[in-house]
Design a protein that fits this description.
This protein is an alpha+beta fold. Helix content is 27%, strand content 44%. It is built from 3 helices and 5 strands. Strands 1-2-3-4-5 form a 5-stranded antiparallel sheet.
Length: 111
């Protein structure tokens, strides 16, 4: 998680943090065998959050490990979320940056 947070911070032009600072920035929840890690995330639009969901999914009898990364944000009176899913492992937030940028452009064009 520290590596992901520092990658996100670097992408947003922020300094890296250490393990102690991370403990104050990350909140973990477990529900139904799925771990959810809420991460303090630099603001996108008028407010944002990022979360990873990690667990096992039963897909037609085949159990697979999966990780989902979601970035949710608000711009004016519009709320949006973009996400991606992979087999278990780390997902670089840079994968979602083009989608976040596209959504923000479309919101701005329609306001």
């Amino acid at each position: 998680t520290l590596q992901n947070v520092n990658r996100w911070r670097e992408q947003m032009g922020l300094a890296k943090i250490g393990q102690e600072a991370l403990e104050g920035a990350v909140r973990k929840i477990e529900a139904g065998g799925v771990q959810v890690a809420l991460v303090d995330y630099p603001q996108v639009g008028d407010g944002s959050f990022a979360a990873t969901l990690t667990g096992k999914v039963n897909a037609a009898g085949t159990v697979v490990d999966i990780t989902i990364l979601i970035v949710g944000f608000r711009k004016g009176n519009v709320s949006a979320a973009v996400g991606t899913a992979h087999s278990a492992g780390s997902i670089p937030t840079s994968e979602l940056t083009p989608l976040v940028d596209l959504v923000l452009q479309r919101i701005s064009a329609n306001q």
